[in-house]
Every structure is written in C-alpha cells, then in structure tokens.
Write a structure and sequence with these properties.
This protein is mainly alpha-helical. The chain contains 2 helices and no strands.
Length: 130
C-alpha cells in the first residue's frame, strides 16, 4: 500500500478525532449551560446528550471499521497487482524464449535449404555440362 494512502488515512484519523472532540465539547457545553436550572429538564437533556454521544461513538466506530476494510482491500489489491506483474514478467520471458527459439529454427532451416539448393545447383550444372 502506498505511502500516500497511509498518509491520507492518518490525516483522516486526525480529522475524525478532531471532529469527535469538537462534538463532545459541544455536548459538554450544552450540559454545563447555566440556563438549565430545572433538574428534571437537566436530567432529560443529559439523557438526550448521552444518547447522542452513544450514536456519535457508534458512527465513529463504523467509520473506523470502514477504514480497516478499505485498508484490507488495498492490501489485497496490492497482492493481486504483484501477482499480475509477476505473471506478466513470466509471460514476457516465455515469449522472449519462444522468439529466440523461432529465430534459431528459422536460421537452421535457412541453412539447410541453402545447402539443398547449392547441392541441387551443383548437380544440375554437372548434368547440364555433360
């Protein structure tokens, strides 16, 4: 997995953490407001804030799981890419060997054909001059 990807994930983690801290600070500010003098309203508000915190924490956990899944996917893609690159290198080497073998066979056949042609021409000229 590339360094840029890891750097992006670290920045993402940092942004998520800052957002989480900001939200929690706002929730704390709401609970600390002096406007809430009624203990019943305060208790109700504290319950709502607690539920909000739970929902937010659940959301952040889901994001963390998504990030882990994304990292696993990228690692899997890197392994697949490596496998494909290795296979392509093997195929290139194989085709290079085939090309070399074909050229060797062509050269051998050319040489044999030339010998046969030379033999034919010698015999032909010999018969012709008789």
């Amino acid at each position: 997995v590339s360094a840029d990807f890891h750097s992006s994930l670290k920045n993402y983690d940092s942004l998520i953490q800052k957002k989480k801290e900001s939200i929690q600070a706002e929730l704390t500010n709401i609970l600390n407001m002096s406007l809430v003098n009624d203990s019943e309203k305060y208790t109700e508000l504290a319950k709502i804030v607690g539920e909000l915190e739970d929902t937010i924490n659940q959301h952040f956990e889901e994001e963390k799981l998504k990030k882990q899944k994304m990292e696993q996917d990228f690692e899997r893609f890197d392994r697949i890419k490596h496998l494909i690159d290795t296979q392509l290198d093997e195929l290139k080497r194989y085709f290079d060997e085939l090309d070399a073998g074909i050229n060797e066979i062509k050269d051998s056949h050319k040489s044999k054909f030339r010998e046969q042609l030379d033999t034919f021409l010698r015999e032909f000229n010999k018969i012709k001059t008789e």
